[in-house]
Every structure is written in C-alpha cells, then in structure tokens.
Amino acid sequence: MRLPDQYTSRIPLRFRPDGGFRILMMSDLHYALDRDERTIKAMELLLDSQKPDLVILGGDNTTGKSTCEEFDVLLQDIARPMEERRVPWAHVFGNHDISPDVSKEYQQAGYESCPMCVSKSGPEELPGVGNYFLPVLDEKDEPVFGIWALDSHQDFETPSAPAFYDGDLYRDLLMPSRLMAGSDWEFIRFEQIMWYWNSSVELEKLCGSKLPSLMVFHIPLFEFNALLLNANRTGMKGEYNERVSASEINSGMFAAVLQRGDVKALFAGHEHNNTFDGTYVGIRMGFDGSAGYHAYGMKDSDPGGKHGLRGGRVFDIRREDPQHIDTHMVFIKDLQ
What we know:
Layout: E1 13-14, E2 20-26, H1 37-50, E3 54-57, H2 68-85, E4 89-91, H3 104-113, E5 132-137, E6 143-149, H4 169-173, H5 190-207, E7 213-216, H6 225-229, H7 231-234, H8 253-260, E8 263-268, E9 277-280, E10 283-287, E11 311-318, E12 321-331
Parallel strand pairs: 1-5, 2-3, 3-4, 6-7, 7-8, 8-10
Antiparallel strand pairs: 2-11, 5-6, 9-10, 11-12
Helix pairs in contact: 1-2, 2-3, 5-8
C-alpha cells in the first residue's frame, strides 16, 4: 500500500527481519555554543549500545544560538552521530529551541537538509513547526505502526500562536496559586489535535484498521500527574525528582488520544530529572529524561552525582504485536 505523501517517510522505516523495531529517544541535549563534547559522546554511546532503527530528538535540542550560522554549527554536531551511522532520525522542538533571530522554520529546513533526517515541517496551517506522522512498515510495505510528532510550543511570554484574549493572558492565566509546578509553558493547540484526529481517521480508512502508535512531544501533558497520584495502580517506575511542568491549560490532547484508541504511548522530555513512566487507562506515558551535559541535572551530592540520570529512552515494538510497546531508560553511567 502506498500511503499519501503526508503520511510517508522519505527514508522508509521498516521492521527488521527478526520482527523488531527499536526507537531511541534522546531529549534535552541543550547543545550550546561551547560545544561540550560529552553530549556528543553520550549520543554515540547510546547509539552504539542500543542500535536503534530510528532516533528521536525530544526537544530542547540546541540552545543559546543568536544567529543562523551558530545554529548551523550546533546542528552539524548533534546530527553527526546519526548521520555517520546512517541511522534515520527525527526531532520535535522544545521551549529552548526558540531564538528571536533563528526561526523554527529556518531550523526545520536545516534538519530536513540532513540526509538521514526524516522530520517534516507539517501542515503550514497548523500552529507550530514539526507536526507530522511517520509509518513503520512490514516486509510487504504495509503500515503496521506509527509515530506522531507534535510541537508543544514554548511559554506564554513568547507564545508561538495567538490566544485571542483581550486581557493580559500572562497575568490572568498564571495566577499566584497554580495547578502545575509554577510553570508558564504553552499547550498543544486545538488545531493540532484536530489534525491528529482527522489524520488518524483517514489512516484507519486507508489501512483498514487503526495503527498502534507512539506520540512524542516536549512539554508533558496535565494527565502525567495521574501516574504520581496512583503510582501502585499505574505501575509507575523510574525516578520522580521534580514536579510535572505541564501547561496551566489542559489541551485535551489526552482525551483525544483516549477516544481514538490508536496511540498506545505518550512521552515527553522537558524535565531532566524525571525518568518515570506508567500506564494510565491503557496508555503508557512518561518522561525521557535528559541526554545533554549542558542541561541542569541532579545535585552533586545525590547518589549518582549531577549526571547520574543522563541517558535516553528505548522503545521496542514487535511486528506481530504492535499494540504492546516495551520501554525503558538507558543511562550513560551504565555504558561507560
């Protein structure tokens, strides 16, 4: 089956002959202009040890750039580990990827210029940049699994899409007592949710059934708190070291995914010291942690030290059972 272009990957993603497909997510590289080589070496360690079929950079990939030339240098460095190994890779944007003088449109074009990068800018009419779908195919080129990527935007001081509110949104929304962890982060917009919904319905018609999928974005959803409040029942595992920094506005993304029933896992970056995940109403969700050495980490006095939680998250999918996604964190300290 040949899917319409908006649902294809320029490098076909396929299950291996043994029936497996492995995704490695590396978030919060925070790769900056001093170009700390430890981040690149960490990426290489994760790639060589986990041998993924696809890499996803989970946002806050670069930071601190003020010119297009500076971004080009940073991108060349973080792309090199995948490009040298000829591993397909994709990305989403995070709140630190914004820059007043380096637009996400410019950055997206740079990503897409990398030969092994399969990211897509997505429909122009949608808020944000980098809303797209990637299929994973079987040996007959039939879609079996899917990956949804969404731009979760940045913060309400530098919003990426207008809210059409006549008052002072920053003051009136972000009150002294907040629902979330004192955060001022934006939210996935209704237009993006509608695009996911309509695309999911179209894919079901084209494929004859719903495609089990993984959805990734940078800023977590409101519902991630359900894992913390019900750790035993949700099977929560991993570390919880900082409050969930979702938006004060509940986007409705989780409700849409729950109602459609195709997305089996929701994962975010953003919180460097949280690595926990669990299952809530049948949907696996949680955090990727941080792979970058520019990003804040734990305290030096913590048992694993400041960099003890640096790493990436692995997702394993089987062709014969794509509804089930195995996932776990891999830490750099265990690979050295």
